Amino acid sequence: QVQLIESGGGLVQAGGSLRLSCAASGRTRTFSTSGMGWFRQAPGKEREFVAATRWKGSSTYYTNSVQGRFTISRDNAMNTVYLQMNNLKPEDTAVYYCALDWISRGLGPRSVAEYDYWGQGTQVTVSS
């Protein structure tokens, strides 16, 4: 089993920044080779892909709406993945979840169904 704990959410004005962290614990000996993703879910909407990093962080992926504003990174020694969010917009308001891809299903890093473990989520609210 793997446990994921997110932190760093909060209330920020439009144009501001936040840095989300996701710390993994439990069976983390393969953390460096596991895909990690960030997703978000706004009220009344489906959970959507935000960003992902694969194989030790060598590849990164972003949804179009955050490209150039958000940066995903990972510290494998600390079993932690980060999401730096700059120039935040009201439409970024959502609960943000990190996820770990333990068993690759070949669905791709943008697919919710690809991921095996999820954190409890952290609220990000951007005021206009």
Structure explained in plain terms:
With 128 residues, the protein is mostly beta strands. The chain contains no helices and 11 strands. Strand 5 and strand 6 (59-62) form a beta hairpin.
Give the structure's gist in a few sentences.
This protein has no helices and 11 strands. With 128 residues, the protein is an all-beta fold. It is globular.
Strand content: over 45%
Given helix and strand content, the structural type is mainly beta
Distance between the termini: 40 Å
Which assembly state applies to the chains in this document? Answer: single chain
| Largest sheet entry | 7 strands, mixed
CA-based gyration radius: 14 Å
Shape: globular
The overall average pLDDT, rounded, is: 93
Number of strands: 11
Q: What pattern of helices and strands is seen along the backbone?
A: EEEEEEEEEEE
Q: Into which percent range does the helicity of residues fall?
A: under 10%
Low-confidence stretches: none
- Given the structure, what is the number of helices? 0
Task: State the main characteristics.
globular; single chain; 11 strands; mainly beta; 128 residues
Topology:
Blueprint (H helix, E strand, L loop, with lengths): L1 E6 L2 E4 L4 E9 L8 E7 L6 E7 L4 E4 L7 E6 L4 E6 L8 E8 L15 E2 L3 E6 L1
Parallel strand pairs: 2-11
Antiparallel strand pairs: 1-3, 3-8, 4-5, 4-9, 5-6, 7-8, 9-10, 9-11
